[in-house]
Amino acid sequence: MIVAWSAVKLKITNDPGGIDKNDRYFQDANVINSQADTPESRLLSNHQKSGKLLERITELYRHYPVDTKRILKQFNETEDYLTVEKMLQAIELNLEDADEDNKHTETNDQGTASVFYWMNLPEWPVLKEAVSKDQLIIDSVAKVTGIDSRLISSVLIAEQIRLFDSRREAFKKWIQPLKMLTSETSFSWGVTGIKDFTAMAIEQNLQDSTSVFYPGNQYRQLLRFKSDDHAAERFNRITDTKNHYYAYLYAALYMKQITNQWRLAGFPINLRPEIIATLYNIGFANSIPKAMPQVGGATIDVGGKNYTFGRIAWEYYYSGELDEVFPFSVAQK
Question: How far is CA 82 from the centre of its chain?
Answer without folding.
Answer: 18
